[in-house]
Design a protein that fits this description.
It comes from Thalassolituus maritimus. It is a multi-pass membrane protein. The protein is mainly beta. The protein has a single domain (about 5-620), classed as Maltoporin, Chain A. Helix content is about 5%, strand content about 60%. It is built from three helices and 33 strands. It has helices spanning about 15-25, 25-30, 410-415, and strands at about 5-10, 10-15, 35-40, 50-55, 60-65, 70, 90-95, 110-115, 125-130, 135-145, 145-155, 160-165, 175, 185-195, 195-210, 225-235, 245-260, 270-290, 295-310, 330-345, 350-365, 375-390, 395-405, 430-440, 445-465, 470-490, 490-495, 495-515, 525-540, 545-560, 570-580, 585-590, 610-620. It has a 22-stranded antiparallel beta barrel. A six-stranded mixed sheet has the order 1-2-7-8-5-6.
Length: about 625
């Protein structure tokens, strides 16, 4: 709703987790409804879900949970679906401007998910859907200091899929129920709050079976599983008093991953591969506030370690095979120092300036080989952002600029998992962004227009030789110009409140590459044109609050490779959700992709098609 979405500052949008759940059912559906966001699926439930912000790639988008980065150092990405919507207190989205230094390092934008640390009501929720989907969760305060969340969800993911060469000899591209695509996830979070200090311990176990998309073999048992333990603590309370203040936080996580393919259905051998990732992060952020001026500083230290072990590959210990399939240990440490000042010149004019310096050290060695071939790399980067904004009774305008960077992931730099070779010379991507954000509003309407330009240097892309062997290289620069617009309105007719909205995004991009096949092409992996329309109706009948929402999306000009040889389908999707609330009980019906349009998405595979969910929640 227009009145429920607020901005902590221009360029930062916040929305509550309850609003996301009530209107959209999950975080992905909510983010997909935003003009500047493209949610990138790669299959059914449990497969990775990435996010593009203002035309940037998923790896150029920073994902935080409670201010702690979850872009893993090995792959550089994240799985947007790993956070159950019931755990979300609110979501902060930053795509431009200078915002205290926390969000300035991302090339595209930053999503900060704040999980619940207090539950003033106990909740039990359940959800059922087609393709064997089911979930249940419970959350609430155990006592005044301790809150608990526990949830479990699973799906058979047995939707119909056009199989290129069916295992049973059927006609090519026959529609078959997908085999071996099951998924489950169990999540637990314990929150403890004492005074200003808030601590959280989380545990997650999930497993996703990997289908044989080409043959749909019923004897396939390939799967990928994750076990993760996380801990964080800090003074989560934000001060607003004048004088000196100090924010601090400590976080740590350990993730064990396993990939198994005992029948060689997916790969070339009987895989039994183990991966371990550890992350430690400490942050200290003092700041001083005096009336209309805030001076902030901060230092953040991060340490990541990645280890791989190929149990069924006899050559992986001695490393007689190519580098990409050797047992290895890689480490990365990052020190980020930032300082900034925000000055509210008068009630109408404000400004911000932030400067940060980032230094990172990475190393890699073959874990068990006689010749470890150890590699050590040290690099640093200095960036800055500045903004000026004007507020009036019916408008907000911000002009902002920033220089950002993205450190190559350990996977891009050193290779692994038998897929890509390493490139020790790989440099960080850098980008210059210039953005103009204009918002006009009154009591019932809001119009937003964004114009931005981004120049990216040393863009990291995968390059393959004639043998099909690949590695990542800094093979190109890239430029992008974007125009995004959104119009929202609210009106009442016969006791029903309608909130329609229309939005459009158009991006023009170009690669400037030393590789002839890439030069002059458009950036892959994003829709260059996207149009959204939605309407939500709210009404009360006999003490029951009803809401009915309809979302329509049409998107096109998606390129799947840097040479623009493969073009994605036009995306046409209609989503519908109905919700009823009666005091402490609520129920909803959600239908995604109502017309069952199985277009090919970012993974160049048909999407799952129509998905229907029934959910209920009881608060007590």
């Amino acid at each position: 709703m227009i009145t429920e979405t607020a901005s902590a500052s221009i360029g930062v949008e916040t929305i509550s987790g309850d609003d996301i759940k009530n209107r959209y059912g999950n975080l992905q559906s909510y983010l997909k409804s935003l003009t500047s966001m493209q949610v990138q699926h790669s299959g059914g439930l449990g497969d990775p879900v990435l996010l593009s912000v203002r035309g940037a790639s998923g790896r150029q988008t920073t994902m935080l949970i409670n201010g702690v980065r979850i872009n893993d150092a090995q792959g550089g990405g994240y799985d947007l679906s790993q956070i159950p919507v019931d755990m979300i207190e609110q979501v902060e989205i930053s795509s431009s401007g200078s915002n205290g230094g926390l969000y300035d390092g991302a090339i595209g934008g930053t999503i900060n998910i704040i999980t619940r640390d207090r539950e003033y009501q106990r909740r039990i929720a359940a959800k059922l859907g087609n393709h064997g989907y089911r979930s249940i969760s419970a959350q609430g305060d155990v006592n005044p200091m301790i809150s608990l969340y526990a949830g479990s969800e699973s799906s058979d993911n047995n939707f119909n899929y056009p199989v290129p060469t069916p295992w049973d000899g059927s006609e090519r591209n026959s529609e078959e129920a997908l085999n071996n695509a099951e998924f489950y996830r169990h999540t637990l979070q314990l929150s403890v709050h004492s005074g200003d200090i808030q601590s959280q311990v989380g545990w997650r176990h999930q497993s996703k079976n990997i289908p044989d998309y080409f043959r749909n073999s019923p004897i396939n048992r390939a799967r990928y599983s994750i076990r993760e333990l996380t801990f964080s603590t800090g003074n989560g309370a934000k001060y607003s008093n004048n004088g000196f203040n100090l924010d601090w936080s400590v976080a740590a996580s350990r993730k064990n991953e396993s990939y198994q393919d005992p029948e060689s259905s997916i790969g070339l051998g009987e895989d039994d591969n183990r991966y371990k990732l550890q992350h430690i992060e400490m942050s200290l952020a003092p700041y001083w506030q005096h009336e209309d001026i805030v001076v902030s500083t901060g230092i953040t230290g991060e340490f990541d370690q990645y280890q791989s072990r190929y149990v069924n590959d006899p050559d992986s210990r001695e490393c007689t095979t190519p580098d990409g399939s050797c047992d290895q240990t890689a480490q990365q440490s990052v020190i980020n120092i930032n300082t900034g000042v925000d000055y509210q010149i008068n009630p109408q004019w404000g400004s911000g300036l932030a400067v940060y310096h980032r230094r990172y050290d990475t190393s890699n060695e073959r874990t068990h080989a006689d010749n470890p071939l150890r590699t050590d790399i040290e690099q640093s980067f200095t960036g800055a952002s500045a903004s000026v904004d004007h507020r009036s009774q019916h408008s907000e305008i911000q002009l902002s600029a920033r220089r950002s960077t993205r450190i190559p992931s350990l996977y891009e730099r050193y290779g692994d998992r038998g897929l890509m070779l390493g490139n020790d010379d790989l440099a960080a991507e850098t980008a210059d962004n210039l953005s103009l954000d204009i918002t006009l509003f009154d009591a019932r309407s809001e119009a937003n227009v964004v114009v931005f330009y981004r120049k990216t240097y040393d863009t990291i892309v995968p390059v393959y030789d004639s043998r099909g062997v690949g590695r990542y290289e800094n093979s190109s620069d890239a430029s992008m110009t974007g125009l995004e617009s959104t119009l929202r309105h609210s009106l009442q007719v016969a006791g029903i409140t309608f909130e329609p909205s229309l939005s459009a995004a158009h991006y023009t991009s170009e690669l400037d590459s030393d590789i002839r096949a890439f030069n002059g092409k458009q950036l892959p992996g994003i829709y260059h044109d996207r149009y959204l329309a939605s309407v939500t109706a709210y009404f009360d009948r006999k003490s029951i609050q009803h809401s009915l929402g309809l979302d329509v999306e049409v998107a096109g000009n998606l390129y799947l490779d840097s040479g623009n040889n493969n073009r994605g389908d036009i995306r046409r999707s209609i989503d519908l959700i109905y919700r009823a609330q009666l005091k402490t009980l609520s129920a909803s019906v959600q239908v995604n992709n109502l017309l069952n349009n199985q277009f090919k998405d970012f993974s160049n595979r048909p999407v799952a098609g129509r998905q229907v969910y029934l959910s209920a929640q009881w608060q007590f």
